[in-house]
């Protein structure tokens, strides 16, 4: 079975033309779908309401801040606890 350079080149050109044809078909299919079904962004998540803190929460925040500052080796004013949720 003898393989010539011209037959190898023909197979390579045929394979590349098939690949590029499929890619062109995909590009036009995607462009058509974008025009038919436009992208709609999902709605923005609602902003959470800020609830007034109670004295009990203030004590919890102070305790958590102190323990984190001790654990991390930082001063309590170097970081801020923003949200505490109970499960």
Give the averaged pLDDT, no decimals: 85
Q: Provide a count of the helices.
A: 2
- Helix and strand pattern: HH
Task: Report the β-strand fraction as a percent range.
Answer: under 5%
How many DSSP-defined strands?
0
The tally of structural domains comes to 2
Biggest beta sheet attributes = none
Q: Which regions are unreliable across 5 or more consecutive residues at pLDDT < 50?
A: none
Q: Which bin fits the share of residues in helices?
A: 55-70%
CA gyration radius, whole angstroms: 32 Å
What does this structure look like?
With 87 residues, the chain is mainly α. It has 2 domains: 1-40; 46-87, no CATH class. The chain is built from 2 helices and no strands.
Name the features.
mainly alpha; elongated; 87 residues; 2 domains; single chain
What is the gist of this entry?
57% of the residues lie in helices and 0% in strands. It has helices at 5-36, 55-72.
Q: Topology, pairings included?
A:
Elements: H1 5-36, H2 55-72
């Amino acid at each position: 079975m003898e393989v010539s350079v011209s037959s190898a080149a023909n197979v390579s050109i045929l394979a590349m033309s098939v690949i590029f044809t499929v890619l062109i078909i995909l590009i036009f299919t995607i462009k058509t779908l974008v025009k038919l079904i436009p992208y709609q962004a999902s709605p923005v998540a609602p902003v959470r309401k800020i609830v007034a803190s109670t004295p009990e929460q203030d004590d919890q925040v102070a305790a958590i801040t102190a323990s984190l500052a001790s654990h991390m080796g930082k001063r309590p004013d170097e970081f801020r606890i923003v949200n505490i949720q109970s499960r």
